[in-house]
Amino acid sequence: MTESNWRELAVLALFWLVYFAMHSALAALRVKRWVALHYPARLPLYRLGFNALALIMLLPILWLMLRHPGTTLWAWQGPGGWLANGLAVAAVLAFIMSLKHYDTQEFIGWRQWTLRTRRVEDQEGFHLSPFHRHVRHPWYFFSLILIWTRDMNAAMLLSGAMMTIYFIIGSRLEETKLLIYHGEVYRTYMKRVPGLLPLPWKSLTAKEAAALLKAAEHRSAAAPTQ
After folding, report:
1. pLDDT higher than threshold 50 for residue 38
2. How far is it, in rounded angstroms, from Cα 188 to Cα 200?
3. Which of 19, 96, 137, 162 is the most buried (most CB within 10 A)?
């Protein structure tokens, strides 16, 4: 690759680093608590604004990837192409199926806005979809499939590698909050189910998942109301 190609990749990497830093900082509980302390009236808009900003900040990154794709490194062909595209389609379908197990209004932030919720902590309780019985972060897993089943140019490879690293780091940061929310129930769940990649020998049966959910309900019922 030319010196110009390397500069373009360096700029792309910088944009991703800024995006990851901003995303992690704004998702942190201490930032939410600061907003709750100094701007409590704006807290109901926090999650909605966070998601909107995350989408807006992706636009220049996507533009850079399209404008300066760099050298083509590999393209799936023949049986490999069929397999790669089949896995990608399966990941998209699984993602769509998973939506019914989430409170999408809570996730987007619309519920917090309409109800004028001012709690710092997320409102959605501990839940285990069929996918969560096999991997703790199914959406990250589906995203990894989509990333690594695509044809690769230099920009995509760099972006894919950085997103993969961020999923690893981001999932750890997210679970720090989940441990605060759900305590020993989530710690038990972490010991039984892998984080990003399903492992055949580490999963929960439907009965075991139901037992964890029941334990979470008891913990929530015993917790003092605010």
Report:
1. yes
2. 18
3. 137
